[in-house]
Amino acid sequence: MIPRLIAAAGGGALLALAFPPASYSVVAWFALIPLLWAVHAESRPGWSILYGMAFGAVFFGLDVSWVYRTLVLHGQFHPATAVLVFVGMVATLSLFPGSFGLVANLLRRKGLPVAISAPFVWVAIEYARSVFFTGFPWDLLGYSQMPSELLIQVADLTGVYGVSFVVVLVSSALFELAQWITGYGKARWSLSAACALTVALVVLYGSVRLDHYPITSSSDKGCSIGILQGNIAQEVKWEKQVRNYTFLTYERLGRLAREKGADLLVWPETAVPVCLGSGDPDWDRAVAISGRLATPMVIGSPSLDVIDGKEHFYNSAFLIDGDGPLARYNKVHLVPFGEYMPLTWLLPLGPGIAARDGDFSAGDSMTVMRLDGCPPFGVLICYEAIFPELARAAIGNGATLLMNLTNDAWFGRSAAPYQHVQLARMRSVENRVWMVRAANTGISAAFDPAGRVVASIPLGEEGNAVVTIPSTTPAGSFYSRFGDVFAWACILMCIVSATRGQVLFLDLPASS
């Protein structure tokens, strides 16, 4: 038992290296092998849960270690309380790889080799993590392959889950090969052949799709968008004495972008340090800047509505010009503990970390904003960019451009901003759509429909970038239209396996 626990935990540490800041993506292809070995060798299903949880505890403990810093520095949590919250979060997330270990082991007991069931079970569990407990699809396995443009193109059919499937399939084949070489198993040449064929098809498909979306020429006509990164520290951004500096900074950056030909300027999430509807006249300074620059702007700002005598705060994005707001979007997917405090009836701890005077309320729909000369666009605020269904909803409502307004200043120079930008980038590939991303302290960027990084502003720097979105580029894909059918197919395979002890034609015999 102990060697298997150590092996599984070591696999979790290896997988953490596949994500930022290390970003050794090749490690992901081997990281699951120790866990597969532990689950395969265990005759007691209950222990397989522990192996999966050990894997998950080490992986999540390393991968999202920045959560502790955020709780202490910005949430004003006592270090001991922050440790308890962080450990609870990691323990909860570890239940998902723990479930993988249990299901894979149970299927093995029904006669299905772990190496064959693993890709289907892994995707099913990842999908569960994406939707349960409000969903936390952070650093799913497929995101580890973002550095490989060839491999990630399949996401326009399968979402990120298809990339995860391929990585686990290769890990499974390598595990079977290692078993055969060491004399502890028989060679499953059919599995190896299926793995090689799948990888070849994914690479071929990626090559074809990259050719279909060539690199955009700087001479292409379209809407030129200026991305502004003010780099205002989280510790001071809400101080009244810093307001003037904030507005002057964004006006200066906007003027520089305007001189480069920007038709539209984009500020980050809550870049305007004033709540619209609070009666504070400083909010109108953003409108005045738009008027002076003679350029419409998309800005992030908190807002306040009074409905039936009750105050409702929103994390909002506005399209404005010199005359005032033209369109508004209220964030629909709020972050628990960040933008609202769950279970307040049980734990009256006050508003979420990012909320100031009270918990934020959720918006009710994905608004599509329209401006003459620019593609219709949907806005994803902060973590909304990690939820594929929200990007799909914006595309379904008519958007042909996505904007991600975020404030990653909460996380300092930790791994979080690097991880977050990679997750947002996948939405471009899945939906074959341009994305423009404005982040307060970085990383701001623009991605084309193939997921290429067209422009970027480094973390922790003030700057601006102008990117031209071709007016002829359509948006949408199979994934946009049909969603997570691949993930549901994997879930169905698991159900069939559990009830019949086989996975259709994948119940392949071993050969010596």
Can you tell me about this structure?
There is one protein chain. Helices cover 46% and strands 15% of the residues. It has 17 helices and twelve strands. The relative contact order is 0.13. A hairpin with a 7-residue loop joins β6 and β7. It has 512 residues and is α/β, with parallel strands linked by helices. Mean pLDDT is 89; it is low at 503-512. The strands form two sheets. The chain has a six-stranded mixed beta sheet with strand order 5-4-3-2-1-12. Strands 6-7-8-9-10-11 form a six-stranded mixed beta sheet, with helices on one face. The protein has two domains: 2-213 and 482-506, no CATH class; 222-470, Carbon-nitrogen hydrolase (Nitrilase/N-carbamoyl-D-aminoacid amidohydrolase, 4-Layer Sandwich), CATH 3.60.110. α3 packs across α6 (79-109) and α6 packs antiparallel against α7 (114-131).
Query: What's the CATH superfamily of the largest domain, by name?
Result: Carbon-nitrogen hydrolase
Q: What is the CATH T-level topology of the largest domain? A: Nitrilase/N-carbamoyl-D-aminoacid amidohydrolase
Proportion of helical residues = 40-55%
Shape: globular
**So what's the CATH class of the largest domain?**
Alpha Beta
The strand line-up of the biggest sheet is 5-4-3-2-1-12
Q: Quote the beta fraction.
A: 15-25%
Record the SSE blueprint.
Blueprint: H1 2-16, H2 28-31, H3 33-41, H4 45-63, H5 66-73, H6 79-109, H7 114-131, H8 149-152, H9 155-158, H10 160-181, H11 189-212, E1 222-229, H12 240-259, E2 264-266, H13 284-293, E3 297-307, E4 310-321, E5 324-330, E6 368-369, E7 377-381, H14 388-396, E8 401-406, H15 416-431, E9 434-439, E10 444-447, E11 453-457, E12 463-470, H16 478-482, H17 485-500
Parallel strand pairs: 1-2, 2-3, 7-8, 8-9
Antiparallel strand pairs: 1-12, 3-4, 4-5, 6-7, 9-10, 10-11
Helix pairs in contact: 1-3, 1-4, 3-6, 3-10, 4-6, 5-6, 6-7, 7-10, 7-17, 10-11, 12-13
